[in-house]
Design goal:
162 residues, alpha/beta
Length: 162
C-alpha cells in the first residue's frame, strides 16, 4: 500500500467559508488496492504553513506520496509551488511537465499552471490544481507511473535491491 497524504491549500476552506470538494475527489479516484489515504487536512495559503505541513507528512508520518491541491495559480496568495521548492531535495519536473502537456489537450489555460513535483526523503510530493476537475484530470494522467516511481524511491523495486 502507498501511504498517501492529501493536503488542500485554501484560505477560505481553512476558515470554513468553503467546502473542500477537491480533496475528497482526489481520495475517490485513488485505487484503494494501491493507495491508503492516511492523512487529510485543509490549510491556508501561507508559505510557512505549507512548508510545515509538507515536512510533517514527509518526515513524521513518512507517507510515500503527498498530494497537494490549490495555490498553483497566478494570484498573490498562490504560493504552493514556492513552499514546495523550499522543502524538496530533488526536483521531478517530468511529472509536472506531463500534467501540463496532457492538460493542454483540454484547455490552453493549462500553460498557466505552476505545479511543482519533487522528492523529500522518501516522499514524492505532487502539486495539483485546486479545482476538482483539474486535480482529478491531472492525477489521472500521472497515476499509471506513480507506483513504479515510488517503488524505486522506497527501494521496493527488485532492480534496486541488486
Amino acid at each position: 500500500m502507498i501511504k498517501t497524504a492529501v493536503i488542500t491549500i485554501s484560505d477560505r476552506g481553512s476558515q470554513g467559508k468553503r467546502i473542500d470538494k477537491t480533496g475528497p475527489e482526489i481520495e475517490n479516484i485513488l485505487n484503494k488496492s494501491k493507495y491508503e489515504v492516511v492523512y487529510y487536512r485543509i490549510i491556508p495559503d501561507e508559505i510557512e504553513d505549507i512548508k510545515r505541513e509538507l515536512c510533517y507528512v514527509c518526515d513524521k508520518l513518512k507517507v510515500n506520496l503527498a498530494l497537494t491541491n490549490g495555490g498553483t495559480g497566478f494570484s498573490n496568495r498562490d504560493v504552493t509551488p514556492e513552499a514546495t521548492l523550499k522543502v524538496i531535495e530533488k526536483n521531478v519536473p517530468g511529472i509536472a511537465e506531463a500534467m501540463r502537456m496532457r492538460s493542454m489537450e483540454i484547455t490552453p489555460r493549462a500553460m498557466l499552471s505552476r505545479e511543482v513535483c519533487g522528492i523529500r526523503r522518501n516522499t514524492l510530493i505532487v502539486n495539483l490544481p485546486g479545482s476538482p476537475k483539474g486535480a482529478v484530470e491531472n492525477l489521472q494522467f500521472i497515476l499509471p507511473a506513480l507506483p513504479h516511481g515510488i517503488d524505486i524511491l522506497m527501494g521496493w523495486d527488485s532492480e534496486c535491491a541488486k
